[in-house]
Amino acid sequence: MHDRVRQGLDAGAITALIEAHFPQVHEGSGRLEILSAGDRKATVRMLADERMMRPGGTVSGPAMFKLADFSVYVAILAVLGESALQAVTTSMTMNFLTRPKPGDLVGEARLLKLGRRLAVAEVAIHSAAETELVAHATSTYVLPSARAG
Amino acid sequence: MHDRVRQGLDAGAITALIEAHFPQVHEGSGRLEILSAGDRKATVRMLADERMMRPGGTVSGPAMFKLADFSVYVAILAVLGESALQAVTTSMTMNFLTRPKPGDLVGEARLLKLGRRLAVAEVAIHSAAETELVAHATSTYVLPSARAG
Amino acid sequence: MHDRVRQGLDAGAITALIEAHFPQVHEGSGRLEILSAGDRKATVRMLADERMMRPGGTVSGPAMFKLADFSVYVAILAVLGESALQAVTTSMTMNFLTRPKPGDLVGEARLLKLGRRLAVAEVAIHSAAETELVAHATSTYVLPSARAG
Amino acid sequence: MHDRVRQGLDAGAITALIEAHFPQVHEGSGRLEILSAGDRKATVRMLADERMMRPGGTVSGPAMFKLADFSVYVAILAVLGESALQAVTTSMTMNFLTRPKPGDLVGEARLLKLGRRLAVAEVAIHSAAETELVAHATSTYVLPSARAG
């Protein structure tokens, strides 16, 4: 039992955890679907939604920020499990590379470091229908101190 | 007439321009009010709205991203006028410093550089009721090539 | 006596501490002189040196990185004192705004946050002879865990 | 002949170009050796040198900045050729992940975007003897306007 809180989670378990704790994460942009999670990575799809669109049909910067941020969070939960629910974003650098076409976006997060106190990750964002990058992010999360316990 | 497109704009004129071209900017977060604009600076208030709240009453990261991004855009419009409407964010680095309390947020943008092709700015974000920073951002916009004409 | 290690330091005391522990900091670029330190700020001058010059007489990016990084370190030491000697840079974002002219550079660091585990700062860099910015940086340091003790 | 200035270059040609135009790039840190260049990528080795060492044998932040910056420059030259010699770094975000052990470092740059005006790249830095990352960078270069000609 003792080790259980540190146990990693798969895509289904993380989805259930998010729905239980942060159901409002889908508000204000397209719905976020966890496609895969594990091995220090996560892939998340953000469904197209008119609320995240900008004139000309492109996806808004805040929506891409949200996708990047959420993808990293999922990658952390996949390794650390429920004990990392309180992980908090401390910094995010985003580079916007091309204007995405209207439609679903996919974020692919990869943990570059998972330390005792900090996790650092990069995220590649592309349109669901294409492989060309539309944005790239690097992000740092502060991990809950419980983890050091 | 010729010089008019390069003429700077004040808060009221920018508000009218945004409402005409990007009325959807207020979607998905709290309404954005331009408090002041000019002298390479801009101050914008984001009204509290449940859609931008996270559990525990804190404001979401994407909402703060949006406030930072919009504040810089306003500071650019204040200098370059309508000809800069097509300016595009190319990068954004955000540091999240403390969890904001529920309530309105204020973004204060300042242009660090306004070149022919790029504008670089920093933004301080604080709760409307306090002076302590809750987030800090630096951002780069690519300016429309028309400007170089 | 017990509180002494947490006591802040002034420019002279920090200079002595650096010379005792990191005399090699001046290698590879111009000599670094602490002009002032305190009140969560620090001002550092980097003396012109041919090793930090690039063709055309401009100062190299790594030299500006070093000046920014050192300025933040000094601002942290000014608050936390010797106990923060083991603080470590975890991230740095630099924006290069204009090519500096040959000559001394000045870095002005300001702590945006000084938490239990992380310090976040911004740094403005300008030529000693001018006020226009040549570069701007934001940086995060991980503070030694001793501080939490 | 006309197209020649836009022609890409391999590692040997870039090395010769650097030695002719920027021989001082090796000053102040370990010597930089271009291991490979092409296909929008570059791999550069920075030889261990006491000038880039910090107490405890770790490599300094400015030296890693230099390696990252140079690796991206090589990746750009590999695509655009000599016409890109005047490309200038406009921003750099570095995340320092673990303290590198003493010894050579390797930077692996990859262009995320190569536009008409801007190039965006990421760089992974690891010790020559290991695969674990010691640092990660994203960087933006402004390309010489000649390129748009």
3D structure, described in words:
- Four copies of one chain form a homotetramer.
- With about 150 residues, the first copy, chain A, is of the alpha+beta class.
- Chain A contains two helices and six strands, in the order αββαββββ.
- Chain A has helices at about 10-20, 60-80, and strands at about 30-40, 40-45, 90-95, 105-115, 120-125, 135-140.
- In chain A, strands 1-2-4-5-6-3 form a six-stranded antiparallel beta sheet.
- In chain A, a hairpin with a 5-residue loop joins strand 5 (about 120-125) and strand 6 (about 135-140).
- The longest helix of chain A is centred in the middle third of the chain and has 20 residues, at about 60-80.
- The interface of A and D includes residues 120, 122, 138 and 140 of A.
- Strand 3 (about 90-95) of chain C pairs antiparallel with strand 3 of chain D.
Summarize the helix and strand pattern of chain A as letters: HEEHEEEE
User: What radius of gyration of chain A results from the CA coordinates?
Assistant: 15 Å
Quaternary state of this entry equals: homotetramer
The strand line-up of the biggest sheet of chain A is 1-2-4-5-6-3
Summarize the helices and strands and which ones pair or pack.
Four copies of one chain form a homotetramer.
Chain A: H1 11-21, E1 32-38, E2 41-46, H2 61-80, E3 88-96, E4 105-114, E5 118-127, E6 133-142
